[in-house]
Amino acid sequence: MSNASRPFVLISEVGPRDGLQSIKSVMPTAAKLRWISALASAGLKEIEVGSFVPPKLLPQMADIREVVAHALSIPGLRVAVLAPNLRGSQHAFEAGVHKITLPVSVTDEHAMANIRKTTAQLIDEVREIVALRDAQFPGVEIEAGVSVAFGCTIAGAVSDDKTMRMCHAMAECGVDEIGLSDTSGYANPAQVRRMFRRLQTEFGDKAGGAHFHNTRGQGLANVVAALDVGVTTIDSSQAGLGGCPYAPGATGNIVTEDLAFLLEAMGYDTGIDIDALIAARSILADALPGESLYDHVQDAGLPKGFTYADGRAPSAPQPEGCLLGVPQ
Description:
- This protein is of the alpha/beta class.
- The chain has a single domain (3-327), classed as TIM Barrel.
- The protein has helices spanning 15-19, 29-41, 64-72, 86-95, 108-114, 119-136, 160-173, 189-203, 219-228, 256-265, 274-287, 296-300, and strands spanning 10-13, 46-51, 78-82, 99-105, 141-147, 177-181, 207-211, 233-236, 322-323, 326-327.
- The strands form two sheets. An eight-stranded parallel β-barrel has the order 1-2-3-4-5-6-7-8, surrounded by eight helices. A two-stranded antiparallel sheet has the order 9-10.
- The longest helix has 18 residues, at 119-136.
């Protein structure tokens, strides 16, 4: 298969931010740095390494400056963070990150629970953040992560028009990219196709990537729907860590290992070594004892005869096959 026929899909790893902020355990900084290095060595090109929030609110992110400094030392890695407000954005800009994601809720109910601001106040703050970036830090990309874009556990159903009104507000503020987040696990494939088509039609090259949760088991089905309409950036979290602490029941990002296998098996190029990615899980298991780690590919292994989209063979031996758990 030629390079031209293998479209590249960027897997943006959000485990060090979305995953770690959603669990009670605090991952030791040294282990966190090893984990980020292992993820990058496995071929991940973009990692959201944390968030700039007060440590008293999220002690899991208290070491964010050290983490960012380490990530920036890894050649070729695009270092992303989340910043919920102007103050956090200022700190992120000063730290030298490549990309900031601003969480912007569609509903007032989620905005108040998550950021303690109304949606109108969030829009005003995004405008200030973009102005600061333009004046002092022009090289940093700003993404608006439109939260509860497909439905809100607190407020209920969210109409397409309501979500698009927030997207229009973000475009008017001057953000570089607008992504849609299924914060509460509401999305279904038909809705995903419809919403991303509309995002692309109305915002052109500002239309960004997809952030899905697997709360109701729809995560990878929604990925395929997004791919069908040309989405080329998908967020995921190693071992499925994560969720939203301010959206009840919204546990579980899609699993990076399973996503990488899905994409490669479908002929998309990710640049990821799945065996190396699976090996990075051992750092999580050692540093976060007792935390639930998910992954079908980890359990089953790569199938016999599997090759990557670019023709590479897996780096680890493949199974000979089994029947009802009995090796063949």
